[in-house]
Amino acid sequence: MSMLVFLEHDAGAVSPGSLGVLTKAAALDADVAAVLVGGDDLDAVAGDAGRHGAATVFTVADAFPSPLPGPRIDVLAELVRTRGYDTILFSNSVLAADVAAGLAARLEAGINWDLIDLDLRDDQPVGLQPMLQDSVVAEVGWRSSQRVALFRPGSFEAAPSAAGSAPAVESLSVEFSEHTTAARVVEQSRRVDEGPSLGDADVIVAGGIGLGSPEGFELAEQLAAALHGAVGATRAAVYKGWYPPSSQIGQTGATVAPKLYVALGISGAVQHKVGMQRSKTIVAVNKDPHAPIFEFSDLAVVGDVHTVVPELVELLRKHAG
Amino acid sequence: MKIAVCVKHVPSGTLRMRADASALDRTGPGELNASDKNAIEEALRLKEGGAEEVVLVAMGPAAAIESLRTGLGMGADRAVLVDDDAVAGSDLVATSRVLAGVLAREAADLVLFGQQTSDGGGAVLWAAVAERLAMPFVSQASKLTLAGTNSGNVVVERETEVGNDTIEATLPAVVAVCDAINEPRYTSLKGMMAAKKKPLDTLTASDLGLSADTVGAGGSQTVVLGTGAPPARTGAVTIEDDGSAAQSIFDYLTERDLV
Q1: Which residues of B touch A113 (CB under 8 A)?
Q2: Which residue numbers in chain A have pLDDT < 50?
Q3: Would you list the DSSP string of chain B?
Q4: A56 lies in a domain?
Q5: What is the count of residue pairs from A and B with beta carbons less than 8 Å apart?
Q6: Measured between CA atoms, how close is B53 to chain A, in angstroms?
Q7: Looking at the 3D structure of chain A, how many domains does it have?
Q8: I want to staple B250 with a disulfide (CB 3.0 to 4.6 A). Which of A79, A315, B10, B17 is the partner?
Q9: What CATH number does the domain located at B2-219 have?
C-alpha cells in the first residue's frame, strides 16, 4: 500500500484538516507522499508537509491557483498512473469532495467518505464511517486496487514530528484535460474575517434562534473572538438571514468536530446534531431545560444567553489580560 | 436548451438499518429528496427563461416513480427511471456509471444535482458523473445564470470555506446547487393531475449497454464490513444559572485547558 495525501492550502498555509490526515497517513505509511497544487510559496508549504510526516511532496506550481477541482483530478490521476500510489486521502471540504469523487470515477476506484478514522487490517485499509445521523458506526473497506478516502475535518490532530526531516520536493508539470479546463474562475473574493474556518477551528461558537435576532450573533462573535474560534449557525438562523450560509452547521451545512463546541440558544434538532455531535467537548447554553441539545452536551447550562455570554466574555478577557 | 436533473427517492422519516445491519432499510415509505427540489426549481426557472425541456433522471426501485411524479408535478416535462435489480446496491462509483449512461443518451446541455441526499448517500455524486461524461462541473451554486454566445456558458456564484467564487463553465456542464439558491415551488393539485399524463420511461442496465457486473453491489468498489454503536458521551454536567453560570463555564473550560 502506498499513500498519497491531497493537501489543501491557502495563503501559504496547509489546512489543519489536511495536516491531520497527513499525520495519520504517516503513521500508517512511512513513505507517504503529499501533493500541493497551485499557489505561492510552495517550497515553504512543502516544508510544513514534511514536518507532518510527508516523505515526498509533489508540487504543481503552474496555473490554477484558483480552487477548481478538475485540474486537481488530472494531477492526482497522473501521480497514480506514473508513480503507483494506490490510496489517496483527503480532508473534506467543498474542493476536496469534488476532487475525490471525480478522481474515484476516473480511476474506477472505490470512494468512502465522511470517515473519522482509518486503520490497517492484514495490510488492508479499513475506514470508520458514522451512519444514520451518527447513531451507528460502520467499518468500511475497498474492493478496488486503488482507494479514495475522504475524512471528516477534525478527525485527526495535526502533529508535527520532531524527527521529521526535510521532504524530497519534486516539481511536476501535468497536462490538463480539455474538460477539466472548461471551467474557469472569473471572480473571486476572500472572506475578510480573520480567524479559522469552521472545518479547521479548534473552537466553534454556534448560534441558533435562541439568540433572538441578527444582533444576537454579536454575542457569538465576541465569545468566538475571546476563545480564538469560529462562528457557526443553525439552519434556522441562516434561513432567517441572521448569519451567512457558509456558517451553517448540520445536515445541510458543514459537519464539524472541534475540540470545543459552544452552542448558544440552539435547541439541538437532529439536523443540527449530526453536524456537531462528534465535537470533543460540547457546552450548551439554553433557556429551555428540556432542549434536546442537553442530551448530548458535556456541560449543560440552563440560562439566558444574553446574560451568561457577556459575563463569560468578560471573564475570558480578564483572563487573557 | 435541454436540462437534466438527477433526483433520488429517499426513505421518509427516521432512517433504519436492515435487520442484518448490512445496509440502509429502503423498504418503507419514501419521498423526493429535499435538496433535489432546489435543482428542479432552478431547472424550471431556466425553462421559464426559454429552455426547451426539463427531464428528471433517477435510479431506484419502482417506488421511485412516486418521487418522479412529484417532480413532474412541479413542472418537469418527463422522467427516466433506471429500475433494475441489477443496479440495486450500487456504491457511488457504480451509481455514477448508471446515471452517466442515462445522461449520455439524453445529451442534455446542463445537468443539475441537489447538494446532498437525506439518506447520506452520494453527496459528491455530481463530480463522478461529470468526470464520466467528460464535462466541467461546479458545486455549491447559490446563483446560476446563462451567458456567452447562444447562452453557451453557465455562470455560477458560490460560497466556499474561504470566500466567494464566480465560475464560468462551457456547456455542456454539471452544476450542483445549494439549498440557498431558491425556494422550491409546491406541487399544485393541477400539477399532480398533469404529472400523471407526462412521459415516464423505465430502463434497465442492459438498455444502457451496461453489463451487470459493472453495476449494483457486484460492480461496487466499496463494502460495509460491519456496524457497531458509537462511543457514548459520559460525565455530563448540568447547571442552572443562579447568577454564577458564566463563572462555572469559565472554570469548566480552564480546568480542561480549553481557554
Answers
A1: 92, 123-124
A2: none
A3: -EEEEE--EEE-SS--B-TTSSSB---S-EEE-HHHHHHHHHHHHHHHTT--EEEEEEES-TTHHHHHHHHHHHT--EEEEE--GGGTT--HHHHHHHHHHHHHHHT-SEEEE-S--TTS--TTHHHHHHHHHT--EEEEEEEEEEESGGG-EEEEEEE-SSEEEEEEEESSEEEEEPTTS--PPPPPHHHHHHHTTS-EEEE-TGGGT--GGGSTGGG-SEEEEEEEPPPPP---EEEE-SS-HHHHHHHHHHHTT--
A4: yes
A5: 260
A6: 24
A7: 2
A8: A315
A9: 3.40.50.620
